[in-house]
Amino acid sequence: MNGTWLTLFAVGAATFAYRLSCIEFGSNLEAGVLGNPRARRLLRFVPPAAFAALVAPAIVVRDGTMLTNPLDPRLLAALVALVCALLTRSVLFTLASGMLALHAVRFLLGG
């Protein structure tokens, strides 16, 4: 048995141990933390917060600097999408309205 097989067995054992620990941790998490209604209520905010953290820099930063022009097409489109999201609570309508607003503002402002 050479070093390659030992490496393969070691990597396989490490992968198995990692996946087994995730399964075991997940079952304990479901019974413990996720059984708490307050924790469930707090965890519902994680996906919107992660999405905002991904999208916000793409909207307010251009070429490494913060946008200061309030008439930037991306800011106006984001504002339209925010209003649509608050009024409709529809992801599809929010995305469509934001994209339409972006293209309309770019067309109107010539940018």
Automatic annotation (TrEMBL):
InterPro entries reported for this sequence: Brnchd-chn_aa_trnsp_AzlD
Protein name, entry field: AzlD domain-containing protein
Ranges annotated as spanning the membrane: 43-63, 75-102
Annotated keywords: Membrane, Transmembrane, Transmembrane helix
Pfam families: AzlD
Species this protein is from: Pendulispora brunnea
